[in-house]
Amino acid sequence: MKSDILSPSDLQSLVVGKKVLIDTNVIIYLTDRVQPYEELSRLLFALIEEGKVEGVLSVVSVAEVIYGPLKKGLVEITSKIREYLLNFPNISCQMIDLETLEQIGIDRRINWPKLRTVDALIIASGLKANVDKIVSNDLHFRKAVSKTFLVSFDL
Q: 46 and 8 in contact (C-beta within 8 Å)?
């Protein structure tokens, strides 16, 4: 088990009272029970459900999460996961539109050239929704997003 991860109390202090973009990997840690990150993902979603944190998902992340079970032919599970995410309390889903696309390349807290296109779309979704923090463990995010704007489970 990896020991250099964020503590639950540190996660709480970084996100409580904030509006946060939740990246795909954080959702997958929860749905697939990925260790050692499941506990932190579960805590984040509990804080959101309790209304202590406001969550934002990009429609791109929702698509990425449901595509895993879909590739395995698990259509029913795909539908349940989609409905769970889209109806989760205190979470909104940001669609990709022209205003979202206009966010790409503007915010100086992001080193845009270091991102993959899909990651740029996810981050632009959060920016359009005026998030305070991005919660992601993705290596590309960790290289491209300012440490003051990113909450990563890995230290």
A: no
CB of 57 closer than 8 Å to CB of 22 = yes
Domains (range + CATH), the chain: 8-151 (3.40.50.1010)
DSSP code, position 153? S
User: What is the rounded CA–CA span in Å between residue 83 and residue 88?
Assistant: 8
Tens of pLDDT, residue by residue over 48-63, are 999 999 999 999 999 9
pTM for this predicted structure = 0.94
Shortest CA distance to 116 belongs to which of 40, 35, 23?
A: 23
Burial 39-75 (b: 16+ CB within 10 A, else e): bbbebbbebbeeeebbbbbbbbbbebbbebbbeeeee
The Cα–Cα gap between 9 and 81 comes to 28
